Predict the 3D structure of the following.
Amino acid sequence: MYFNIPGLNNSGPQHWQTHLEEKYPDSFQRVQQDDWATPNCSDWIMRLEEVLSQQPLEDVILIGHSVGCATIVNWFGKYQHRIKGAMLVAPSDVERGDYPKYITGFFPLYLKKLPFPSVVVGSTDDHVVDFERAEYFAGLWGSDFVEIENGGHIEGAWEEAFEVLQKFELNNL
């Protein structure tokens, strides 16, 4: 089972996470948060834990976008649950000096090797995380890395999302 963990303001109707849920409704489930406008790490990882506590973790693949990626790695840092794998797309750099102050509690970001397969997807022109920083996160987490040329923050209809996920699964799971 795939669980989407969107970022700030949820993923709207044109977002690739929403497209995956619409195209594969029996396979993709969104983890809903109470407050999408002012993410709080404790609240978000607690909700993720609530949802995943009802699942066989060995079958779970988490798919994060932006601060959703920070939610996933900080969730692991707190609960230490092994899952089948994770795809971390355009991870937020919560340590940046210009990171929004209304997004709270995600610092320090968990920056150790994850004990499950993962892939980080980074764009060469992302305004939320520098490309080199996304590569750095991938290295620390022990993740594969996929480069998207000029994909911005990868917020729109990223048609290759399912293909990247399938390739990741084929190579790692």
Notes: The CA atoms of residues 119 and 168 lie 7 Å apart. The chain has a mean pLDDT of 93. The chain is about 30% helix and 15% strand. Residues 2-172 form a domain with the Rossmann fold fold (CATH 3.40.50.1820).
